[in-house]
């Protein structure tokens, strides 16, 4: 194609292939649960084509980027939401058989998809909501992996994008220190009834998702300690 000055024709054919191959899956809501896995596999196959068939030619690299970005944003914000949910599934405790190295590799691959999506604020909203549940309920598969993902997002989008996410981790660490300090206090050791296990999270307004206020009635045995917490 270079010899007959027809590279542009080949680029157009590649672009049509990318857009046509993925459009049916992207637009089919019934296939949402497999969408991120499909995008990861499709992107990997395109990277292989770029390397083996087009010798990493920059023109074809740009064609793949532009076409893939068009494809992934056909449904506006839905892919951003599904990518956040996919990460939540991978970062949750219970992913048996996945090593730290494999998890790190998955995070890197998903980050490539993240670069293409336009609704990054939508991704941030869903990611923050899921992260809050993992942190508050102790459901993270790996805190190191959680912090690694935050670092990747910070490198990609800047500190302003991850400021609240980092603040959530600080709140969890500070809450642990407060709980440990209370448990070591003389009041807790001498007066807290046997068999009562208490854990309190102190959260900074603005860092966490907004939850509807709830009236909580503490039992008398705990009520007397409010002044110490």
UniProtKB/TrEMBL annotation:
InterPro entries: Cullin (IPR045093), Cullin_homology (IPR016158), Cullin_homology_sf (IPR036317), Cullin_N (IPR001373), Cullin_repeat-like_dom_sf (IPR016159)
Signal sequence extent: none
GO MF terms, alphabetically ordered: ubiquitin protein ligase binding
GO biological process: ubiquitin-dependent protein catabolic process
Cullin family profile domain mapped to chain residues: 78-222
Domain of life the protein comes from: Eukaryota
Family: Belongs to the cullin family.
Name recorded for this polypeptide: Cullin family profile domain-containing protein
């Amino acid at each position: 194609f270079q010899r007959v000055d027809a590279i542009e024709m080949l680029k157009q054919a590649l672009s049509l292939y990318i857009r046509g191959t993925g459009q049916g899956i992207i637009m089919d809501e019934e296939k949402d649960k497999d969408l991120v896995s499909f995008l990861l596999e499709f992107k990997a196959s395109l990277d292989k084509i770029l390397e083996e068939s087009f010798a990493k030619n920059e023109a074809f690299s740009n064609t793949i980027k532009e076409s893939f970005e068009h494809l992934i944003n056909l449904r506006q914000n839905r892919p951003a939401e599904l990518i956040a949910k996919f990460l939540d599934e991978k970062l949750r405790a219970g992913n048996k058989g996945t090593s730290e190295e494999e998890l790190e590799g998955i995070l890197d691959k998903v980050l490539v998809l993240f670069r293409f999506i336009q609704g990054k604020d939508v991704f941030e909203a869903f990611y923050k909501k899921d992260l809050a549940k993992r942190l508050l309920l102790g459901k993270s598969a790996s805190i190191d992996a959680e912090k690694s993902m935050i670092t990747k997002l910070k490198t990609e989008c800047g500190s302003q994008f991850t400021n609240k996410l980092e603040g959530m981790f600080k709140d969890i660490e500070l809450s642990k220190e407060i709980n440990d300090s209370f448990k070591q206090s003389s009041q807790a050791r001498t007066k807290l009834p046997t068999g009562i296990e208490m854990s309190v999270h102190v959260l900074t307004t603005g860092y966490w998702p907004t939850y509807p206020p709830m009236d909580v009635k503490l039992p008398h045995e705990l009520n007397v300690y409010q002044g110490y917490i």
